[in-house]
Specification:
The protein is an alpha+beta fold and 160 residues long. It has one domain: Winged helix-like DNA-binding domain superfamily/Winged helix DNA-binding domain (Arc Repressor Mutant, subunit A), CATH 1.10.10.10. Helix content is 44%, strand content 15%. The strands form two sheets. A three-stranded mixed beta sheet has the order 4-3-5, with no helix packed on it. Helix 1 packs antiparallel against helix 2, helix 2 crosses helix 4 and helix 3 packs across helix 4. 24% of the residues are buried.
Length: 160
């Protein structure tokens, strides 16, 4: 299974495709994809790491796109609300969505050593959690799945 956060790939293509997908969704939905929102998405797509709002704000500040925390938080809120980014609860940070515009249930694989994050597919409603919930009459509406461990690169480094 290819997971962009861990696999070697062309970041330029990744960024172009991610931004193009966001632009298309925004155009279709009549949403404003402002230059700051675009740049924040690009920053998230460049790294495949969970980034905090202040990390993003530091980049925006150096580029003259804003220096106050609300600039970054507003852009991140927009990106998360419309499915272009996800919030990693455990890290209080954000990553670009690997499947923008698609309805899906992401699970996050977080490397504890290098902080890379890969987005995998999860379906909590139909797996063991879903069966357990159904057995007591509980309907899952939202679940956040985050797994911490070592990415392939860090595992190789640890074995050496």
């Amino acid at each position: 299974m290819d997971l962009p956060g861990f696999e070697k790939h062309d970041h330029g293509t990744c960024i172009r495709e991610g931004v193009a997908a966001a632009e298309a969704v925004c155009t279709d939905a009549g949403l404003h994809f402002t230059p700051v929102r675009r740049r924040v998405l690009e920053i998230l797509l460049e790294k495949h790491q969970a980034l905090g709002a202040y990390d993003i704000l530091d980049v925006l500040r150096t580029e003259g796109l804003g220096s106050q925390p609300p600039v970054a938080y507003r852009a991140l809120d927009f990106l998360v609300k419309h499915g272009f980014a996800h919030r990693i609860e455990r890290l209080n940070a954000f990553v670009a969505c690997a499947h923008p515009g698609e309805s899906h249930s992401p699970a996050f694989l977080i490397c504890r050593k290098c902080d890379k994050v890969a987005e995998a597919e999860a379906d909590p409603a139909s797996d063991m959690l879903g069966r357990s919930a159904a057995s007591v009459g509980f309907l899952i509406e939202r679940a956040v799945v985050e797994a911490e461990g070592l990415c392939p690169d860090c595992r190789e480094g640890a074995a050496a």
